[in-house]
């Protein structure tokens, strides 16, 4: 099977013709074989990383949020081939060495989830934010979290949870 | 003997949602599965002249394409006897349109392919030749002279008329000092859970059993419906519930796709997977709420409510779905609310339009009725120059008057204390202070307003639930119930009840609600019924198990303990638990319970943009008894958030041709953390006398009063112009329009 690069200037591919795409997710190689039109979300989900959810495939809900080179992206709006060469992080990689991330614990403690369908996306969105802007203020956090939708909680408890995780993470930094 | 779990906020085990291992139906795969894609009508009303599937069939990966000609003549049945009439069968939906399509989104054909992308490509190529017909695009035009008929054979667009009456209405109106009358409209909107629907069906050729993953809410009914539609025995169909990404009333009813996916799995002998996409969801999954009321209220000059007359047109959409006439029946039952009327007459009508069928969404009927009544009460208060709180105070049914019945209307309030609940809400939010604040802020030119709503909510609808408790040899207990988990945490709540009643630690109990194979019957998760019905059934099953165990040892049931797989009595004699068999419980609930709730909202309006901001929002509900107060509070807060969305943002609009205008999330605006205040939740516990646990249910109640309270608050903020608030949502455009006249 050809690698996708070989087609960049060459022949057309059929809609269902697969190519090899090299993804790196949670610090592990994730070799994917999929048609070039396969979305990043589908490529992840078809290759064992099903924790990334699809709520709309229209770029609106954020359930599919993953980090690409540390920045949140909507994996439903991106093609898998576009993520080649980048570092992907998904919910499966959030807990390190069997220990839950501060955000995961805070989500539990603050009732930030009910059905859990939006949770992976919110966790990744918040993880990206707290790493990029560890001192983000409440209003900034609220603004960023408003990018995603949670139908069960409305999002208030998610904001509380992210603020609590931020306190913990900053405390940890000394 | 109890271990003290009931009433405690036991934490829910939610690890699987946090680490991504939760398994929703989209995450289930079966060897050799094929993917279904539904071809839907792009027009609202048309005769189907021809369907050409040849080109679609010739596409790579395509295995089959079916149309109505390939399936048996069958229709989706109604789930509740109370929601059926002698005529409703005329309007039931076939799984694939036959001859006529009646709404945009109606299934016309199904394409099955080896890959979901290919199935979607091929579906585009199914060529349907339509001869378009005139469209009924609005509830009011549905009943006017000469209007097109949605179902020509039925000869009418009226599905049902629900008349309810109490007392002598004419006499009460004749005595009135004041009569006010207005039209009010609740708009079309719906649940929009974050997970769309999805199904996976597989026939096991060895056992002859068809398994359907992705079930929810009313699994046992869906199984019976499929059994009769497919013509195979009930015990050969198994429905499995996976993790569910929100239900709120719309998920888990039997839909056309439930039949189609199961049918294809049988026909093709391979597993069939179908995951609804979001654009489909907006036209295929039940819509809700749209109705218009013409309401007239009679009162005395000192603010005593005498009587009301209501006539309403309630949208059913293009077909009557599994919830039958509930869209017209439930508002009728909730119009009187918690007030002492001398008389009323109600006539709600379920009418057909060429739009997506309507079902129930969280707080069904009650949310609409509460909006209509409470908005009118504020108008009455303005007319009488009375504080709206005072008007309600004077008319709430007092505890001494309970049980209170509006017979012959089937509405009876068994227990509670409505005035105390109402005062509790006002005290908790500091109503008097709030009024002062409003004064000050208005003086500085701000548009701020306070609004509230009081209501009654039907819940705990029967007929019954069953439970089985099976002890295992390792000392653990498996509890089988027929209700569903839709993200509410019902497992935790039922686990608490079982553990307390068995007298064992919670981690010795597991709740199994996933599978129709494990319990013969069940009615599912709707109408805030899970805790009441299944909870009491679990409690009875636990008592049954204790009684059986005690009988074996010849001691009173109160004296035995379950310890490490043994039954032990005080003097130390034991028998193995495995010898006792299983505990069974069945809780019957012939009459529903009504419970009391109220909501209060403080809003401000931006004069330039018309944008409404909710500054504070509080909801109160009498839940009888809170098994898990924290989980309940979260339910109430979540429901109130949805109610704020309904009041200010969300609307499913159609144009005059019946074309939906909101088929992507970007067009259907739902609230985010930016639009929502922290919801204040007040849980009252006035035990229900009608069941042993004393619970009343309440997972929907945060919704019920919320749109009404927000509408009243916006009207209050608008001052005199507020009288013009008659419909929702109160979008910036609409509010700005009203401000302009200010
Ligand atoms: S699934 Fe990607 S934004 Fe909704
Ligand atoms: S927890 Fe259900 S959508 Fe957020």
From TrEMBL, chain A:
Q: Which GO terms describe its molecular function?
A: 2 iron, 2 sulfur cluster binding; metal ion binding; oxidoreductase activity
Q: Does the keyword Protease apply?
A: no
Sorted alphabetically, which InterPro entries does this protein's record hold? 2Fe-2S-bd, 2Fe-2S-bd_dom_sf, 2Fe-2S_ferredoxin-like_sf, 2Fe-2S_ferredoxin-type, 2Fe2S_fd_BS, Beta-grasp_dom_sf, Diverse_Oxidoreductases
Alphabetical UniProt keywords: 2Fe-2S, Iron, Iron-sulfur, Metal-binding, Oxidoreductase
A Pfam cross-reference name: Fer2_2
Q: Which domain of life is it from?
A: Bacteria
| Protein name from the UniProt record | 2Fe-2S iron-sulfur cluster binding domain-containing protein
Automatic annotation (TrEMBL), chain B:
Keyword Oxidoreductase: yes or no? yes
List the keywords (alphabetical): Molybdenum, Oxidoreductase
Gene Ontology molecular function, alphabetical: iron ion binding; oxidoreductase activity
What positions does the domain Aldehyde oxidase/xanthine dehydrogenase a/b hammerhead occupy?
19-134
Q: Which Gene3D superfamilies match?
A: Aldehyde oxidase/xanthine dehydrogenase, a/b hammerhead, Aldehyde oxidase/xanthine dehydrogenase, molybdopterin binding domain
Note the InterPro entries from the entry. Answer: Ald_Oxase/Xan_DH_a/b, Ald_Oxase/Xan_DH_a/b_sf, Ald_Oxase/xanthine_DH-like, AldOxase/xan_DH_MoCoBD1, AldOxase/xan_DH_MoCoBD2, AldOxase/xan_DH_Mopterin-bd_sf
Q: What is this protein called?
A: Molybdopterin-dependent oxidoreductase
- The scientific name of the source species is Nonomuraea phyllanthi
């Amino acid at each position: 099977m050809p690698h996708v690069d070989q087609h960049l200037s060459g022949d057309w591919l059929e809609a269902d013709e697969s190519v090899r795409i090299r993804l790196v997710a949670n610090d592990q190689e994730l070799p994917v074989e999929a048609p070039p039109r396969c979305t990043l979300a589908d490529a992840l989900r078809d290759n064992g990383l099903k924790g990334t959810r699809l709520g709309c495939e229209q770029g609106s809900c954020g359930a599919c949020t993953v980090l690409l080179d540390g920045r949140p992206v909507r994996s439903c709006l991106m093609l898998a081939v576009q993520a080649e060469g980048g570092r992907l992080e998904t919910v499966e990689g959030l807990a390190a060495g069997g220990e839950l991330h501060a955000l995961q614990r805070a989500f539990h403690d603050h009732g930030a989830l009910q059905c859990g369908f939006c949770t992976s996306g919110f966790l990744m969105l918040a993880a990206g934010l707290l790493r990029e802007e560890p001192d983000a203020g409440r209003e900034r956090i609220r603004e960023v979290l408003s990018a995603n939708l949670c139908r069960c909680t409305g999002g208030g408890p998610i904001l509380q949870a992210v603020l609590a995780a931020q306190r913990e993470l900053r405390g940890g930094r000394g | 003997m109890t271990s003290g779990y009931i009433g405690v906020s036991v934490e829910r085990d939610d690890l699987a949602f946090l680490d991504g291992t939760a398994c929703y139906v989209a995450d289930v795969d079966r060897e050799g599965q094929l993917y279904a894609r539904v071809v839907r009508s792009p027009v609202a009303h048309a005769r189907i002249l021809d369907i050409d599937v040849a080109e679609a069939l010739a596409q790579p990966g395509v295995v089959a394409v079916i149309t109505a000609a390939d399936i048996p003549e069958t229709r989706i049945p109604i789930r509740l006897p109370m929601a059926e009439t002698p005529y409703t069968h005329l309007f039931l939906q076939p799984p694939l349109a036959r001859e006529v399509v009646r709404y945009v989104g109606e299934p016309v054909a199904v394409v099955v392919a080896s890959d979901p992308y290919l199935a979607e490509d091929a579906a585009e190529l199914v060529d349907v030749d339509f001869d378009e017909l005139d469209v009924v695009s609005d509830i009011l035009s549905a009943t006017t002279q000469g209007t097109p008929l949605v179902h020509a054979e039925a000869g009418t667009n009226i599905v049902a008329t629900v008349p309810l009456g109490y007392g002598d209405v004419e006499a009460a109106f004749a005595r009135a000092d004041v009569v006010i009358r207005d039209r009010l409209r609740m708009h079309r909107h719906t649940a929009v859970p974050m997970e769309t629907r999805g199904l996976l069906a597989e026939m096991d050729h060895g056992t002859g059993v068809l398994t359907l993953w992705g079930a929810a809410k009313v699994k046992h009914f869906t199984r019976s419906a499929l059994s009769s539609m497919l013509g195979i025995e009930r015990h050969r169909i198994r429905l499995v519930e996976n993790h569910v990404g929100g239900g709120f009333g719309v998920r888990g009813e039997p839909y056309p796709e439930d039949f189609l996916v199961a049918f294809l799995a049988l026909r093709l002998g391979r597993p069939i997977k179908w995951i609804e996409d979001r654009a489909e969801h907006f036209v295929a999954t039940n819509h809700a709420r749209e109705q218009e009321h013409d309401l007239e209220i009679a009162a005395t000059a000192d603010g005593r409510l005498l009587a009301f007359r209501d006539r309403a047109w309630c949208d059913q959409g293009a077909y009557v779905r599994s919830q039958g006439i509930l869209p017209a029946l439930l508002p009728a039952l909730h119009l009187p609310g918690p007030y002492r009327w001398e008389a009323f007459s109600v006539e709600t009508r379920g009418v057909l339009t060429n739009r997506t069928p309507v079902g129930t969404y969280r707080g069904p009927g009650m949310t609409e009725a509460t909006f209509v009544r409470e908005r009118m009460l504020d108008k009455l208060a303005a007319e009488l120059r009375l504080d709206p709180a005072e008007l309600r105070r004077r008319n709430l049914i007092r505890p001494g008057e309970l049980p209170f019945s509006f017979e012959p209307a089937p509405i009876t309030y068994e227990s509670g204390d409505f005035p105390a609940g109402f005062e509790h809400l006002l005290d908790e939010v500091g109503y008097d202070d709030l009024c002062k604040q409003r004064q000050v802020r208005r003086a500085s030119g701000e548009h701020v307003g306070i609004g509230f709503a009081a209501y009654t909510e039907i819940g705990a609808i029967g007929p019954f639930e069953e439970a089985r408790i099976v002890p295992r040899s390792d000392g653990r207990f498996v509890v089988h119930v027929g209700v569903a988990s839709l993200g509410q945490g019902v497992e935790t709540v039922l686990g608490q009840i079982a553990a307390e009643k068995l007298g064992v630690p919670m981690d010795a109990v597991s709740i199994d609600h996933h599978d129709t194979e494990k319990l013969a019957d069940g009615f599912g998760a709707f109408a805030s019924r899970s805790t009441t019905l299944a909870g009491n059934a679990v409690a009875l099953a636990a008592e049954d198990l204790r009684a059986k165990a005690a009988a074996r040892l010849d001691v009173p049931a109160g004296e035995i303990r379950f310890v490490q797989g043994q039954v032990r009595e005080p003097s130390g004699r034991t028998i193995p638990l495995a010898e006792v068999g299983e505990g069974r419980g069945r809780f019957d609930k012939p009459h529903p319970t009504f419970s009391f709730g109220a909501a209060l909202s403080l809003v401000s309006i931006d004069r330039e943009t018309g944008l409404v901001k909710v500054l504070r929002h509080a909801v109160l509900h009498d839940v009888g008894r809170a098994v898990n107060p924290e989980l309940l509070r979260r339910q109430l807060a979540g429901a109130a958030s949805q109610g704020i969305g309904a009041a200010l943002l969300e609307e499913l609009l159609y144009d005059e041709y019946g074309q939906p205008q909101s088929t992507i999330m970007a067009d259907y605006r739902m609230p985010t953390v930016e639009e929502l205040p922290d919801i204040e939740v007040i849980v009252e516990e006035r035990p229900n006398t009608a069941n042993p646990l004393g619970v009343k249910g309440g997972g929907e109640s945060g919704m019920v009063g919320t749109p009404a309270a927000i509408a009243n608050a916006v009207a209050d903020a608008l001052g005199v112009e507020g009288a013009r608030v008659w419909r929702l949502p109160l979008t910036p455009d609409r509010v700005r329009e009203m401000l302009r006249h200010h």
